[in-house]
Write a structure and sequence with these properties.
By secondary structure, this protein is mostly helical. The protein has 14 helices and three strands. 60% of the residues lie in helices and 7% in strands. The protein has a three-stranded antiparallel β-sheet. The longest helix has 30 residues. The protein starts with a helix and ends with a helix.
């Protein structure tokens, strides 16, 4: 596995020794402007942009390593750390990926899915997932449980749904695929909330706005979030087929 210095060196098109020298200066308390101006001979001439990127990535990657060790320790203490899981955690290169892998093992409050499992509904969830042709209500009728207040097929199906929802939400590979799909395909849509035209005049450009998610610059995303938080805009994420079906 590459060191932090080697990773950063590749990202900023520099030599590992240049990165290592800069890291030493930063750890001693030197600032980027000071290093850029007075320590060119130490860094090998790294420019201001390279130095700022280096500082940001150094902080991020160190936090990533610290979090990685915490997660490995937590899962190991639960006696659930398999070689495959450890390898995936060691190879995770972003905080998002790391947290996705940790999610199924992260200590949590008692969930609706856990309550459903305690009521014996996990086999129902598995049966419906494994064979979509099954009649849901007929299958659920075999899982009624008065002790756990599962009095109807609907109660059983609601519990099975909670189990499957939690399972999908904790599937790291599925989450990665979903994020990638949404980034590539999804659009952000904003509409004026009823009666907010005068109050939200500063958001007029977004009263009827639609744009591909991957094309939205940060300043426009912040404006949309502000408009939503102030109750002026309804902001949603939609797929292309939803946009097509909404056209007259």
């Amino acid at each position: 596995m590459q060191s932090i210095e080697q990773l950063i060196a590749q990202e900023i098109n520099a030599q590992p020794r240049q990165v290592a020298a800069t890291v030493a200066l930063l750890d001693e308390g030197a600032t980027v402007p000071f290093i850029a101006r007075y320590r060119k001979e130490v860094t090998g001439g790294l420019d201001d942009t390279q130095l700022r990127t280096l500082e940001e990535r150094l902080r991020y990657l160190r936090e990533l390593e610290e979090r990685r060790e915490t997660i490995l320790k937590s899962i190991a203490e639960q006696e659930k750390l398999t070689p495959e899981l450890e390898k995936a955690i060691q190879e995770a290169d972003t905080k998002t990926r790391l947290e996705d892998l940790y999610l199924p093992y992260k200590p949590k409050r008692r969930t609706r899915a856990q309550i459903a499992r305690e009521a014996g509904l996990e086999p129902l969830a598995d049966a419906l997932l494994d064979d979509p042709t099954r009649d849901p209500e007929q299958t659920a009728a075999g899982y009624l449980n008065e002790e756990h207040k599962i009095a109807t097929a609907k109660d059983a199906l609601d519990g099975a749904k909670q189990i499957l929802m939690e399972r999908f939400a904790e599937n790291a590979e599925l989450l990665t695929r979903l994020r990638t799909f949404l980034w590539e395909k999804a659009h952000v849509q904003a509409k004026l909330a009823d009666g907010k035209e005068e109050e939200g005049a500063k958001f007029r450009d977004y009263f009827e706005h639609q744009e591909a998610l991957k094309n939205i610059p940060s300043h426009r995303a912040l404006a949309l979030f502000r408009g939503r938080n102030e109750g002026v805009l309804h902001v949603s994420m939609v797929l292309p087929e939803e946009l097509e079906s909404a056209q007259p």
